[in-house]
Amino acid sequence: MEKEKLESLIIDYIDGKLNEQDKAVIECELAANEDAYRLYKQTREVIQAIDKSAQLEPSMKLKSGFDKLLKAEMEQQKPVTAKTIFFSPMIFRAAAAIALVLSGVALGFWINKNQQRESELVKMKEQMDQMRSLMLTQLENKESASQRMIAVSQVVEMEMKKPDDEIVEALVKAMNEDSNTNVRLAAMDALSKFHQEPRVRKELIKSLGKQKDPVVQIALIQLLVKMKEKGVLHDLKKIVDDNGSMKAVKDEAYSGLMKLS
Description:
By secondary structure, the chain is mainly alpha-helical.
């Protein structure tokens, strides 16, 4: 998500102006992306400072109480003049008291609302961490390829903007070493979602020289060509020149050479 769009969504989220769909998107982003969550906290603090300095509108009940105090003070002043009304110490004290009450009520409401929102974000972040931990554990399940497939699919479902090093390492290991072709393909697909990340891009390039499964080789060549990654030209040429490579893989590699050259 672009920074400007993220900032705009965060401001609307704090102001409670987002619809349910956009609210879910930004809450997921805040839970998964530490940079976004840091920006949210900074923006919230700025808005809090502005809100504290804003003029508060008194309730009808407090207005009525103030009017009574003002009327009583006016009746005690002999003679009554604009100067005696607006410069009376009693009026100042009454106005100050009402302002303090209003500030306390408004600040208390604001704090309660934001504490609730903060609690929801913390809870969502905890859920994301639990899902992440479960995913990493399932990837180590040597007995069940289906469980490993589910674990890989969870990476996509988590809608992370940027995966952490541990997740990248687990996916790379699954792509290069898993005994099941489908798991390797799923891991490669999950990594492709983050191909703009330098480390992920580097691992995808390195993987081409390690893959022996023709199905995975072909899929990886197609992905790297789609990424317009010229860093694999040498590996593609090796595949074309290798007499041990399957014809289908050689043909895909040759096609990739023509498209990237």
